[in-house]
Fold each of these.
Amino acid sequence: MKKTIILPLLWFATTKLWSQTDSIPTPATDSVQVLSKAQKIADSRQELISSFLLDDPAGAGLWMDSLTRLEDAQYAGLIWDERWLLYYWTESYGTLLAEVTTFNEDERALQSWKIQPPKDSLFDYIDIALNERKYDIFGSIRTAFLNEEEKAFTTLLLEYLLRMNHDEEEWASRLQSFEVHYPASRFKPFVHSIKPAIMKPSKHALGISGGFCLGNWSDQLERNLGIPYAMQFDLYYWTKRWNVLFDATFAGPYIRRDIVSNGDIWPKDDPTTFVSLGLNLGYDLINRPKIRVFPSVGAGLGILKPTEPDEDEEPLPLYYDNFYFTEFHLAAALTADVKLFTKDNRDWNTPKGSYHGIRLKLGWNGLNFGNRNEYLRGELFYLAVHYNLFGVLPKSNP
């Protein structure tokens, strides 16, 4: 009797243990399942490519449905633009429009987080084919059973998918026109999401330029001071062709001959510090897409003095205070901006009209150091070469 009872118990226990062991998924089993899902998507895409190349819309539709069923929260079977271009190819405009109305930024982000389809030539084949017959598709849209709003949007969407929106300003204007013409359109959120942000230029701009300046003295300055190799900077405000400029020039010419002041001597070969600060007003005579030319006139402050010694050097003699010269002068210049880069303004977030390039500046400073010392009588003529940044300010919102 005991043997009769024990044998069924042993059989039950053994069966239970085996069934529990089989129910636990192993890593190897999971890998096979993951590979199977990815492989099914890859195989279905290859079949879709074959149907597309055979010009078989019915077959392509079946494989698109298969890829849709294979999609889940983890895997994407078709990228959204691939699917939408295929809708154009099959003339499934109703399905396309229904999907677009639910496609927002959240949906786009959700799609991007999924495991993307394997890299193949599906998009390339679709893109090439639709670009070649895009005008036939435009004609198909015009005769499709769609209302005027749907035809207008479907046309814009195809241009967007085929990257025909090269001119950002023209494209933004067309999208704005659609939004104005159809203010209650169900496509308005998508239209707004693809509209480039074009900043409208105001009539005001700020600019800065800097570079090197080669000068030439006149009269006694030419005899007593070396050639002024200088650094020069311009900071300016522009409005309605008018330019208000602040400029600064820094140089360090050496003394060519002894300079006498109140019985003291500023010796030959001594280094100097020359600074010129100016405020000028100019007006654009020429302002073309590639060049801007304007003359300017103004006044400035000039400083000429011995160069301050370093901390580890001997201090200047006390009598060097006699060689600290300041003066006020008139100034004039002719400036030409060569606009080298006018299409990169969006890279630095500025409106159209902004540019950067080379600035050439031919100028004159009517220095008055000669009123303080006869050895320093003369003027400064210079040629400067700058790199120039000109940024138009955006128009403020009303």
Amino acid sequence: MNMRKEIERLIYWYAPAIIVALLIDYILTSYIKASHDLSSIILWSSIGISIVFSHLHHVVVAIWLYVISKQLNQKYILWSFFGLVAHLFAAVIFLVLYVYEKNEMDSRSSRE
């Protein structure tokens, strides 16, 4: 598996997710501040939409970790949940463990 391409794929999805989240958050915040006569349904739905879109990058990392860990026969449900909660921190831990395990396997094979 080419991990560099996989990391690039994560970046291709993560960067637009951050941009979309920031834009939606800015637009909805401006809309709420500008509107003085909002019904409670519109207000709460816009707040809900803002919350969902502000966590879009967490979902992107969770999906990426799900796909990668499934390809590597890891515990993909655990990694995707951890990615949903800790997003980039989870991806970094996954990559560090992947590199560590790969180096261990290479050192064991060179000893034999």
Amino acid sequence: MTNLQKYIVTLAVLFFPFLGHSQVMMKELLTTNQKGQLDKSVNWTGKKVYYQIKFDSIRTFKYEGKESARHYYTILIADNAGFNNPIRVPSMVRDLVITTYFEIYLNDGIETKTFTLVYDKNNKWYRIKFAPQAGCRREELWKRVNDIRSYEDLLKSMIMQMDNNLKLDCYRGHEAKVILE
């Protein structure tokens, strides 16, 4: 066997076990509840922000002969650890090979708009695309965030950008008006 063939076989043996798991970094986390907190809220002047991301269900989606899973959640955001009177927003995650899409449906009582976070797994960055309802805007500095090291970092950063850029009370009590596909 030539040196080149030995090199290729060695690489294949070393990397083969990781091929099934390398791209879908968060697969096992997608069906578990997540929670966390931020230290200083913009919405609740200096208070802590507590959040829970509760897993609801998985639904199969078919398009042009291809099938994928959509993970549905309810995000709870509150200014207290007991989650008394939280803001509830329905959301959905599509976890693809290279990219994960978070779609959060925010209704202000009049219309529903989709907050979309696009996470690039290979390069470990995300960008948010969202044009909030006029009365619900705060800043609108949706920054691209680089060097995301974990799923927890991704969720915490997403909630922080929501707290900084939105008047979250606009969305309180309107989750029932959101129609999910």
